[in-house]
Every structure is written in structure tokens, then in C-alpha cells.
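Q: I have 172 residues here and want to know how they pack in 3D. Can you give me a structure?
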Amino acid sequence: MLIDESMLVRAVKTEQMNFLYCLYAFNKNYEVDTGDCASDHSDGGAAPSVSDEDDAVEKYRTFTYDSLLKMIASYCKDKDGIERRVKAVAQWKLSSSENFLKSMLINRQDMVAAEYGKYYLDKVDDNLLKFAIDNANSVFIKFAFRKGLFSGAMLHKKEMISFLLGKLKGFS
């Protein structure tokens, strides 16, 4: 079975979180573009030439956590529905090369990120704090320090002090 974006959109709209969980848990969160027809290439690029079935060039489009959260925000009608779905995704606690906390911060899900951050401690580091500061995720920063996601020792590192001073100079 091949997965396409419309299947994910339908799952998001109908709150089929178990289906989405299985896609992400078993690394099936991608769609295959075999390049068989030029109309599939909305970016204006030409489809790869295919002479044989054996020579088919497959391209993949991965549905990252960021794209999933954007879908949830786009297709859910109310804030409660969005938060409920984002929390359901956070509860998956899947290990991934993608930083799920960062994806939540990009999509302005600060409270959910702070609440479920303890499950993604391997992604909590100086870079996440810098990103949160740059992205103005003040709610996340406040609650992340309160919940102990970030240690106070992070703020004493020379690199972090330089970063914060640079930010403060930008305000003057």
C-alpha cells in the first residue's frame, strides 16, 4: 500500500491517531513519487525520463513531524482539537532523528512542548534553548525551566552567555 498526503489529511481530520502513530512508528511516513507523469511535479520541474519499469527513479517525500503539526493546525477547526491531536502525537514518545520539541515550537505549541518535554530529553540542549529564544517561545522557556527541562547550569556556559548578551545588545 502506498501512502499519499490525502490519507494523512483524512486521518488528521477524522482524528485517526492510531493510523498516524503506525505510519510514524514503522517509518512509513513518506509518499513515493515515481515520476511517471509530469503533472505530478507542481514545482515546474520536468519528470525524470523513464524508459523501463526497472529504470524507474523513485523520489520520496517525507512527512516530518513539522509537516504533520502544520497539517493538524490547517485542518482542525478549533484550538481544543488542535491541542488534543498535538498531545496525542506527543504521547507517542517515538525516538526520531527529527527534534519533535523543535517542531512543536515552530508550530507555536509551547505549553504542549513544555508538558511533554520530559519524554524527549535527548533533544533538550543549548541549541533548543537558543532556538526557543530566537523563535520567541517565551511560554515554553518559562515552563521548561520550571519543570527542569533546562538546567540553570546551561545559562552559565560561556557560549550561552555570549549568545544572550548578543540578544540583549539587539534590544538596545
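Q: Anything worth noting?
A: The longest strand covers residues 30-33. The first helix runs from residue 5 to 13.
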